Amino acid sequence: MADTPANDGFVTFDRVQKSYDGEALVVKDLNLSIGKGEFLTMLGPSGSGKTTCLMMLAGFESATHGEIKLDGVSINNIPPHKRGIGMVFQNYALFPHMTVAENLAFPLEVRKMGKSEREMKVKRALDMVQMGEFGGRRPAQLSGGQQQRIALARALVFDAELVLMDEPLGALDKQLREHMQFEIKHLHEQLGITVVYVTHDQGEALTMSDRVAVFNDGRIQQLAPPEDLYERPENSFVAQFIGENNTLAGTVERIIDGVAEVRLSSGEIINAEPVNVSQPGESTLISIRPERVEIDHTRLPADAHLIDAEVLEWIYMGDIFRTRLRVAGNDQFVIKSRNSGDQRKLVPGERIKIGWAPGDARALEVTE
Amino acid sequence: MTTSTEPVVAADGLPLKRSLARALRRQKIRALLLIAPLLLFIVLTFLVPIGNMLLRSVDNAIVEETIPRTVEALRGWDEAGDVPPGEDVFEALYADMLIATDAKRHTRLGSRLNYESSGMSSLFRKTNERRLGRFELEQPLAPQFEDIDEDWITLETWRVIKSNSDPVTAGYFLAAMDLRATPTGIEPVSDLQAIYVKLFVRTMILSVTITAMCFLLGYPIAWILANLPSRSANMLLILVLLPFWTSLLVRTSAWKVLLQQQGVINDLLVWVGVLADDNRLAMINNATGTVIAMTHILLPFMILPLYSVMKTISPTYLRAAKSLGATDWTAFWRVYFPQSVPGIGAGAILVFILAIGYYITPELVGGTDGTFISNRIYYHISSSLNWGLAAALATILLAMVLALYWVYDRLVGIDNVKLG
């Protein structure tokens, strides 16, 4: 997992391991370098070790092995309150017995900042999240979205260079969540802070991040910018976890000039890009994104592969149509087509030919 | 749409409020029936006795009921002067006493008046049916009463009778505050007799001490309980409740065994060499004993409300405070502690109110300087049979608790009390 050259390693995890019970490793040999000003998202299912990594960085959990460095200095033995890392918690953790302004002043007070400077900073932080008039309220008097903004302002008010966010939008409804995603992204750009963001929502990860680290089973499965992650997943887990994905099982016949010929279980042979298969005879899963599959053959390149399909279900979803097909024995094969006006409605039972550009079919390893 | 000034009307034209009330009536009746047994029980066993006690603390009808003519005749007598009442009063007294001795009520009146002035009991007991029967009615009655007891013609006796002739008296309350009424006004009783104010003050001080001790010992335990995984927390919670499984009397007696001068703790200290054998600590039968034993008994009442409130405080708050730069102590003091205040309030009120009225433990381990006002109340109910004074003391105790409750409400706010 090579870093991009821009990375100067503001935060680095060096061979970090973590075990809670001395029997199983929750985090297995984590190596990660986060550049200054980067927005890095740790994405993964629950229990994948992403939150543990964040807690180790914040100082609430200690690494069983390995070293965590902040700006070149090892922070393994620095207590959380001396790390100067801002943090936004899942349920905001706004202090209920303090007003919004007191919540924001808290980190400044414990830093022994003077009253006038404190007030100025609190006001600036509140204005930054458009909550200037709410300083006198109690957290309980605010809506979820407003609390979220205050939590954000509180993590930023003491000018932390690194801000950690632990599923901060998990408690918001969909619309507000999407709105807040952009706000956080804009704040990140404006302030030039480094953000480490933990989520299990892949949409969130793709929207906001410079790079995404996909966690599973205590390891980073792929660390890449959102586009690479979606377009070029490096293994089956990432392909399945990020976005919707169709899989066709098959066996590699041969690999010539970076193109794998794969015999599907139905006997048909198709071309695919070999990602982590190398040997003829190897079992493979061909991964194809639903939106890359075309019904309209005129939109396909000349070398596109066409395959028989039977329509099982056709669902109108507003902006797109979602069609479920049986393809090469897989009856969960889904295609998404844009509601473009000239699209025709498919009828269940109809037999059609579908196709995709050869580069969109990726031959990945078979997982158990 | 109707405007806000007109009453809203239901579909049948009746005011909506009345329709709603009718619709809810069945529910209300059912709810009332469900609580009726408890309501009746509380009224009979709690409100009635308390009301009775409040009345008894001022009730003085016995004098007027037993010797009504005397009370009437005494109206003309000037108690501030230095002349005993005239013959008309003695005639009235004779008539009253004849009836009273016949009904055997004169001794009860004597006991009652004896609370005000000692000697009255025997005075009335002596003035019995037999002595009254030998009176010669043609002769003046005053000297004949004097023959029975010369107290009958002293000013003091008649002042006591006259000052108690109202059916309502403040005498019990005055006595309960170490005061007494004299013809010249209210004045304190002599220092030797004054005990109640001292006892009230001691009861307050010891109760506050016990509450503070329970808080100091209970807070860390509650904190540990609230932060342990629930399995081990439940186990420890059972240990906290374990004392409830043992009789209060047994536990208190166990403290005697532990704390007495020849007891386990003193023996141990002497054996270790911390104490000289002739210098053993007096830890029982005094205020120390009361505080130790009652802190032990009341501790669960502090721990449980604290625990249930702390359980609701998310550990994330402490983490948040630390991530914002607070040291462990600042995080606790500024963020955790304020959120646990409702639990402290509930625990403190519970312990304090239980302590202030506690009876059995101070009785057993309090000795002379560790007893509470409740021990005195019990004494007046069961031994001296001065129920009026007992009622007055209890009423003052109740008033003190209510006053403290009010102060607490003002300072902390009763809405801030949480049991979980």
UniProtKB/TrEMBL annotation, chain A:
Keywords for the protein's UniProt record, in alphabetical order: ATP-binding, Cell membrane, Membrane, Nucleotide-binding, Translocase, Transport
Enzyme class: translocase
Pfam short name (any one): TOBE_2
Keyword Cell membrane in record: yes
Annotated ranges, domain ABC transporter: 11-242
UniProt keyword ATP-binding present: yes
GO terms, molecular function: ABC-type polyamine transporter activity; ATP binding; ATP hydrolysis activity
EC number in record: 7.6.2.11
Domain of life: Bacteria
Reactions this protein catalyses: ATP + H2O + polyamine-[polyamine-binding protein]Side 1 = ADP + phosphate + polyamineSide 2 + [polyamine-binding protein]Side 1
GO terms under cellular component: ATP-binding cassette (ABC) transporter complex
PROSITE patterns for the chain: ABC_TRANSPORTER_1 (PS00211), ABC_TRANSPORTER_2 (PS50893)
Similarity section: Belongs to the ABC transporter superfamily. Spermidine/putrescine importer (TC 3.A.1.11.1) family.
Subunit structure: The complex is composed of two ATP-binding proteins (PotA), two transmembrane proteins (PotB and PotC) and a solute-binding protein (PotD).
Free-text function comment from the UniProt entry: Part of the ABC transporter complex PotABCD involved in spermidine/putrescine import. Responsible for energy coupling to the transport system.
Name this protein carries in UniProt: Spermidine/putrescine import ATP-binding protein PotA
Organism from which the protein derives: Pontivivens marinum
Gene designation: potA
TrEMBL record, chain B:
Membrane topology according to the record: Multi-pass membrane protein
Residue span(s) of domain ABC transmembrane type-1: 200-408
Keyword flag Transmembrane helix: yes
GO biological process, alphabetically ordered: transmembrane transport
One GO cellular component term: plasma membrane
InterPro entries from the UniProt entry: MetI-like, MetI-like_sf
Keyword Metal-binding among UniProt keywords: no
Transmembrane region(s): 31-50, 204-226, 233-250, 287-309, 341-360, 387-408
Secretion signal, residue range per the UniProt entry: none
SUPFAM superfamilies per the UniProt record, alphabetical: MetI-like
Keywords in alphabetical order: Cell membrane, Membrane, Transmembrane, Transmembrane helix, Transport
Major site of localization recorded for this protein: membrane
Family designation: Belongs to the binding-protein-dependent transport system permease family. CysTW subfamily.
Protein name: Putative spermidine/putrescine transport system permease protein
Organism: Pontivivens marinum
